[in-house]
Amino acid sequence: MTTLLEARYRTVLRLLPAYYRRAREEEMVEVYLWDVDQDTQDQSRPTLGEVVSIAALAVRSRLAAAGAPRPYALLGSAVRHFALFAVLLQAATAVVERVLGLTWSSTHGSRQWDMFLSGFTGRGRLWTVVGIAEWVLPLLWTVGFFALVHDRRRLARAAVVLAALPTLWPLVGPLVSDWAVSDPWFAVANALFAWLPALALCAAFHRDAPPAALPFGAPGMVYAACCVVMGASLVLLPAMADSAWAPGTCFVLGALAWLLLRARRPDRSPDCGAVALAALGLLLLAVRVAAVYPWLGVLPAAFVGGALAQAAVLALLVVALAVVARRDLTAVSRGT
């Protein structure tokens, strides 16, 4: 006879994918009920810790690796590639923006230096803490990236979560101060651009997942190349230097290079890189549109035209990557 506690455990276990329940549900229910008195089972419930543990297992089993059904293995691979590519992009962006900003402020006279320092001082303790956090914490994207590629997963998780925290301030700041966000749509898009990769890394690089590996090139060389591309895009076209220009340019060149190398590679076995890049490109496109939309008809036509052209290229790349991803998944489903 099924007790109420057993029924409740089975209800919670429905969070798990069907393939996992078929293999483990009976064993898990037996373990959960092992030391619970039969007479009290109708008055008991699964503990909060057990529910959280099952929910975490549900995420991990859906973002599975080798040994899982093919759809779950592909989903896990796509999410891991998305997290890796996005963290790399965030890491290079944070370093380049701060190096170029610091260089400009320190080499263009005392007025520019005073303007730089005013972001940290003179507005009260809260704003000093916020200013320092917004400048320092994003540098942890680099720590997270290199920790991830060297399989230091706990360090990588902690670093990317801390690095993403400053993007919440434009959303939380108006609730705790008299500051009003000037562009809420960009604030939301920017927060998603930071938190979706951070959450993807935390969820998909579980203990059963394979080590992170870039599809081509050593991590240090790829990271340096991204920094060079972003820095050059800002130095050569300073009029386009908004927050979306450099990462958008780096993504466009990186995605084109990936497509070219993939076309020349004899082994075309899908690694879900196209799915990951298409998702990242779509996220970047949202940031690009949100960054330029409030300035339509305000800023010079050259800036708006360049931003819209970049958005168009991003859109075309997303479509192309989606087509490649669909072909890959179709080939997998047919067993070719």
Task: Tell me the layout of helices and strands.
Blueprint: H1 4-13, H2 18-33, H3 48-62, H4 70-107, H5 109-117, H6 125-136, H7 140-149, H8 153-164, H9 169-176, H10 184-204, H11 219-236, H12 245-264, H13 273-292, H14 301-333
Helix pairs in contact: 1-2, 4-5, 4-7, 4-10, 4-11, 4-12, 4-13, 7-8, 8-10, 10-13, 11-12, 12-13, 12-14, 13-14
Going by helix content, strand content and strand pairing, the class is mainly alpha
Q: In percent, how helical is the residue content?
A: over 70%
Instruction: Please tally the helical runs, counting DSSP H or I stretches of 4 or more residues.
Output: 14
How far apart the termini lie comes to 48 Å
The total count of strands amounts to: 0
The largest sheet, given as strand count, sense and whether it forms a barrel, is: none
Could you state the order of secondary-structure elements as H and E?
HHHHHHHHHHHHHH
Mean pLDDT: 88
The low-confidence runs, each spanning 5 or more residues with pLDDT under 50, are none
| Beta-strand percentage range | under 5%
Shape: globular
Radius of gyration: 24 Å
Describe the 3D structure.
The chain has 14 helices and no strands. By secondary structure, it is mainly alpha-helical.
Index terms:
mainly alpha; single chain; 0% strand; 336 residues
Short description:
The protein is mainly alpha-helical and 336 residues long. Helix content is 72%, strand content 0%.
